[in-house]
Amino acid sequence: MTDLATLELDLINAIGGAESVAALEEVRVAALGKSGSVSGLLKGMGAMSPDERREQGPMINGLRDRVAAAIAARKAELEAAELDARLQAERVDLTLPARPRRKGGVHPTMQVMDEMIALFAEMGFAVAEGPDIEDDFHNFTALNFPPKHPAREMHDTFFLKPDPETGERKVLRTHTSPVQVRTMMSQKPPIRIIAPGRTFRKDSDATHTPMFHQIEGLVIDRDIHMGHLKTTLQTFIARFFELDEVQARFRPHHFPFTEPSAEMDIRCDRSGGKLVFNTGDDWLEILGCGMVHPNVLKNCGIDPDEYQGFAFGMGVDRLAMLKYGVPDLRPMFDADTRWLAHYGFSAFAAPNPASGLS
Amino acid sequence: MKFALSWLKDHLETEADVHRIAEAMTMAGLEVEEVLDPAAKLAPFTVAKILSAERHPNADRLQVCQVETVDGLKEIVCGAPNARAGLTTIYAPIGAYVPGLGVTLVEKPVRGVVSNGMLCSASELELSDESDGIQELPPEIPVGTPVAGLFGAEPVIDFEVTPNRPDWLGVAGIARDLAAASVGKLKHFDIAVVRGAFPSPITVRLDAPEMCPVFAGRVIRGVKNGPSPAWLQKRLTAIGLRSINRLVDVTNLIAYDRARPLHVYDVAKLVGTEIVVRAGQVSAETAHIEGGEPEHLIALDGKTYAAAATDCVIADAGGERPIGLGGVMGGESTGCDETTTDVFIESAWFDPLVIAQTGRALGIHSDAQYRFARGVDPVSVTPGLELATRLILDLCGGEPSEIVFVGEPPASPAPFAFDPAYVKRLSGMDLDDDRIGTILGQLGFLVTAGPADQAEPWTVTPPSWRRDVEGRADLVEEVARIEGFDSLPDTPLPEVARPAGGVLSPRQARVRTARRALAALGYAEAVTWSFTKQSTAVLFGGGDDRLVLENPIAADLDCMRPSALPNLIQAAARNAARGFADAALFEIGPIYLADGPKDQRTVIAGLVAPHAARHWAGSGEDALFAMKGDLTTLLEEIGAPVASLQLAQGQNRDWWHPGRSARLQLGTKNVMVEFGELHPRVLKALDADGPMLGFEIVLDNVPEPRGKGGKARGSADLSAFMPLTRDFAFVVEDAKPVGDLVRAATGADKALIAEVRVFDVYRGKGVDEGFKSVALEVVIQPRDATLTEAEIEALTAKVVAAVEKQGGKLRA
């Protein structure tokens, strides 16, 4: 074996035997460093005769190249092993729990309110508002409840203490209908509005709370008749319950502020302890409605010979319960965090026509 | 109100069954609450005959009977002492539900002998309250006859009458509507005039015609009062009334039959010969005292009532002695009983508002009060009296006097012009004029051709019992409900242009955004009462007497809330009491500053009860600053001018922790938000364990974003140059708000300083007592070119100068 071959074998063994990047660097310096063994051979080529150089040169250069390549390969190997070892050491236990975040949510009544507003917005209704504390005129008189009339008693009205100076007794609005009055008194027909909000009646049992939510609707124009009322409400209720259609009936009723007046029922079956629409022999009352009474139009400065229209009102909390299977009304207003987590809606469930109502 | 089917059939010829009638009533506007059909529960029971009865082998008191039944011969065990061979009785098969026992029969041995059914008593079938043994029936009734038909147990309809239709408080009125709705044919019967044999010895004086404008009466002498005959008792008890005696039962019968209340007085108990109808007054005994005591009266219900000047009183003894509350209830002193021989019948008309008021004020309700308060047909005064006379003569005998009739009935509803085309215009229903006229006619309206100079072709006069009808819309309702709302056309609303920017006002849109933003930030939305307790309202700056309810639902809900926080605090406390102390709640709703229409505000209120569970990685962010971060995010989401908001500390109102709360304001006049920790004193008063943190944004105070330039945004200012940062540490007095230093540093060069971050606040070794070191990282964003060292030097000098102006000293 030539000296060169021996040197190469030794170097290759040393490279293979280097167990760390630092040890490998020592081998590299000993071979290829300034005074390394291979570097010495390269330097020695300067003193050779041209013939010697022609013979030895390629062999020495080849040795250098192979050693350098072997070092690079070994280095890559060692670095990969070191990275593996480091990553192994960095292991964490991912079965540990993350820091918990509170789960927020939207109240079902408010979700349903948003749904209703979205549906009516599509039908061209604007949103009107009015105060919760009303005067007798807006809550009753303008709506054709004559003073002292027994119909007023049906409302279980909350009264504020009489004003010490005027003696006037304000009321908590018993329905959202005063917003009709405020709207008609402040804007000219055509009118197409809904008015959602809080309403109050002195009533408290399993199905009544002293505060609840209504959504009122009002459409006034020259030629609006009861057929419009029927189709509008049937369309709305079907869309609200996300059904293709609803089997509804309109049943005559009495409200002082509408004439004719009706209540709308949906066909349903409750026999299985579950509410199923459009089947069975039962009827579920959904809302009250009617053609705005000519006296109401007059009281609001609208000529009943020129304009007419319909109004409706429905309980938002109750419709939320029906749609989303909430069994009891009272917990709606109790703010039990467990109840809110169960019946609440995601922040991102905002109703829209593309993905649906909730 | 209730009626039995047979009663209706007195007025209506119909083959319709009770369910069809209930359906027709519903669709005509009478809200049927319940159809009670005793026949349905009697359906399984039939007549059977006992062929033999032998003692049970294992029980002395039981007998084993061979019974001929509809199902053939059955062996039935019976414990009734009267079970005997030859008895015709009632048989219940296996599987029948026995209503009086509340059990369904199953085939099982009784002391070793299988009983194949049951023999029943009347009480087991709920046909009577008590029974002595099994029912004994006449032997001629064949085996297999349904029991339902034997006992006259007939269906009863229970329904609600809306306040506009007092005529529906009589069965005859319902029959009229049902006839119009084609359920049957109305039976008319004339009420015969009964000629009086002598002048009425009792006269009537009306001293309060505004309360009682008309009063008719007559005496019938020589009557024989006593228990009513079975048919009358049955008729009354079937609808839940108590049979009292013939005279009283006649008045109740006519009240329910004709919606015509009457009253009967025992003439022997009257003092004097004159009945006076007047307003309530002070009692004679106390009339001499200033103010006096109101007169008192013991009514037929045995209770004593004080009559005020707003109540209508019936009096005798020259008007001195109150003997009844007119239109409401008679007095005990002159009531008719078994001993009555001479009776005075009253048929009057009382003003609905007076009667409603008396009912409310005295808390007294009767069938008469209910009817008069809603409005009785004034024309029924005389016919009602004649009908009562006829019935009393039939039941009690006697001799009637002439009628005494005083006053004038109120005017009947006035005729008005009507164009039948209005039916289509308002209801959309296309009916021909004949049909419209027929419906109105069947309901008792008089339809005539209008005068030549009238634009509308018809003149319509409502019947005297329809005082609710006052105009053309009412007529459309009559026609539409009788034709049936099922015939309404389907007409979509005409398309209208939608508002280009959506239908919500900016404030309404903000409420929506805030709701979704807070939900995303981990807050659960609550909806709580608009009320609170007055003393609680006072704690939160409210509680004005003008916001206190006169009739609260509960003593602790008697005042309109000045803030949504107390309800949220109490909600969190309730959750804690249930074992769930950690809570983040919010509510978007009203608060009430005063009682005017413009005094209501919408607030976005949040409440955090920070009780995070322990975590293996240690405690997380400080709860107060976490909430401040949520609040800032929320304000940005709703487009509040966050950059211009000033934070002021130490000025919050009483319910906040004085050192751990602040307000965000635009100048001192517009405080938009208060936030921080709630005052422990307030939490204690609300029985809530602290700490609790909260915020309340008065949404009405958040200015709407300006700029009418549409929705397009200005061009983005994205610098091409790397930002660089420089750190500073300043020593300032401990009391100095860090925010002041940040604002000063930020303002040192508005063009180049993009942000100032606080990365350390240090007190202790190396910093003098009463001072703190605040470390700031200033982010410098070069705009047009990379900054030179000299420029950076100049900028840092400006930062140092600005902060030193605030009392900060650059730390060496």
Automatic annotation (TrEMBL), chain A:
Organism: Brevundimonas intermedia
GO cellular component terms, semicolon-separated: cytoplasm
Binding site for Mg(2+): 259
UniProt-recorded name of the protein: Phenylalanine--tRNA ligase alpha subunit
Statement: the UniProt record of this protein carries the keyword Membrane: no
Catalysed conversion reaction: tRNA(Phe) + L-phenylalanine + ATP = L-phenylalanyl-tRNA(Phe) + AMP + diphosphate + H(+)
UniProt keyword list: Aminoacyl-tRNA synthetase, ATP-binding, Cytoplasm, Ligase, Magnesium, Metal-binding, Nucleotide-binding, Protein biosynthesis
Designated gene of the protein: pheS
UniProt-listed Enzyme Commission number(s): 6.1.1.20
Annotated transmembrane regions: none
Annotated Aminoacyl-transfer RNA synthetases class-II family profile domain residues: 119-331
Subcellular location: Cytoplasm
UniProt cofactor(s): Mg(2+)
UniProtKB/TrEMBL annotation, chain B:
Domain TRNA-binding span(s) in chain numbering: 39-148
Class of this enzyme: ligase
Chain residues that bind Mg(2+): 468, 474, 477-478
PROSITE patterns the record matches: B5, FDX_ACB, TRBD
Any one GO molecular-function label of the UniProt entry: magnesium ion binding
Entry annotated with the keyword tRNA-binding: yes
UniProt catalytic activity: tRNA(Phe) + L-phenylalanine + ATP = L-phenylalanyl-tRNA(Phe) + AMP + diphosphate + H(+)
EC numbers on record: 6.1.1.20
One Gene Ontology cellular component annotation held by this UniProt entry: phenylalanine-tRNA ligase complex
Keywords of the record: Aminoacyl-tRNA synthetase, ATP-binding, Cytoplasm, Ligase, Magnesium, Metal-binding, Nucleotide-binding, Protein biosynthesis, RNA-binding, tRNA-binding
Record's keyword annotation contains Protein biosynthesis: yes
Domain B5 intervals: 411-490
Gene Ontology BP term (one): phenylalanyl-tRNA aminoacylation
Cofactor(s) this protein requires: Mg(2+)
Localization terms from the record: Cytoplasm
Superkingdom in the source lineage: Bacteria
Subunit: Tetramer of two alpha and two beta subunits.
HAMAP family in the cross-refs: Phe_tRNA_synth_beta1
Entry's family note: Belongs to the phenylalanyl-tRNA synthetase beta subunit family. Type 1 subfamily.
Protein name: Phenylalanine--tRNA ligase beta subunit
Organism: Brevundimonas intermedia
Gene transcribed to yield this protein: pheT
